[in-house]
Amino acid sequence: MKKAAVFFAFLIVVIGAIYFRNSASGEEKAPGDKYIGAVSVTLYEEQTAIPGKIVSRCYLEKQEMYEQNQMVTFTDTMPRFTQLAEDFTTATTTTTTTTKTETKPQSGDQESATPEEGAVSDLEVKYVGELFGAPTYTIYDSKFKVQVEPQERLELPTEPGLYYVESDVKWGKKKNYTQMKYYFIIEVIQ
What we know:
mainly beta; seven-stranded mixed β-sheet; four-stranded mixed β-sheet; 11 strands; 12% helix
């Protein structure tokens, strides 16, 4: 009888610790979060993981919106890439649907990818996971004025300057998805 009481007390402590750890982490989990994949940008053969920000969640057609910070408040954390103006040939998007066991790319340092002699210059944005719909891209100039309205094709400016790229993505299915935005900076130089 004493052993059973000790066992149940231990079990309650373990369950409480697991519950406390999950609730204290500050991370909200929703059914659609299991579909969240990974986004990376490759430029000059260097791949960099792009962190995302949750915009909304939809579960059984009930949508929950999240407060968004102004882009200007987090530009210092955006991955930055430098591209020579004459090297721009194409920007491509690759989508890979994966199973639950797919690993996410590890976030590297936030250093700029810079051109090297003989390197491939095409920029590629890669999505690994289960997408609902196609990603859309909005491009802003250095003063956060929209240069390219949201569209499915990534069209990068060729004029020298600093540009902020916003990728809007829905991970999941029609009735169960998480909408996220991913940001990175392209600096076009002569």
